[in-house]
Amino acid sequence: MISYTIKKSPIVKRVSIRINADKKVVVTIPRYVPQYVAKQFVVSKQDWIQEQLAKIPENIYTQQHYLEHRDRARGIITARVVYWAEVMGLSYSRLSIRNTTTRWGSCSSKRNLNFSYRLMFLEPELMDYVVIHELAHLVEMNHSKSFWNIVSIYCPDYKQCKIELAQQHIS
Fold this sequence. Notes:
The protein is α/β, with parallel strands linked by helices. The protein has six helices and six strands; from the N terminus they run E-E-E-H-H-H-E-E-E-H-H-H. Helix 3 packs across helix 4 (124-136) and helix 4 (124-136) crosses helix 5.
């Protein structure tokens, strides 16, 4: 039997299964659904769950790995951000390098830039694409046509970078 955790939610309307990067299976059920329904759902989806678990590579990105690479990542990523901010004529408030597991980068409405330390392990072109993408959010805080026009000025092959980045696993 597959090990899993049940999460009751007042928002969801259907039973769903999520498999985290650390291979933990989470079954989310509406709050009014009894727990035995989650068990039945897991049993019915057992083959699919096993297939998904087999696809997840072993995670090398441990906390120890982060601590060992944090300072080097900060130097590499900061240099790229400083370079591209100057080229694009943009300024930002704060730059943070973190051990994120779901996003390569983000930009807040307070003009703070956040990047995963794992960015440093990507090809330089992909790292630059992520940096340019987040810096473009300083001008357009959305993914409108205007936003993508800004990205395309500094990263003409951004569509290919987007495809390649989607094939990378952050976790």
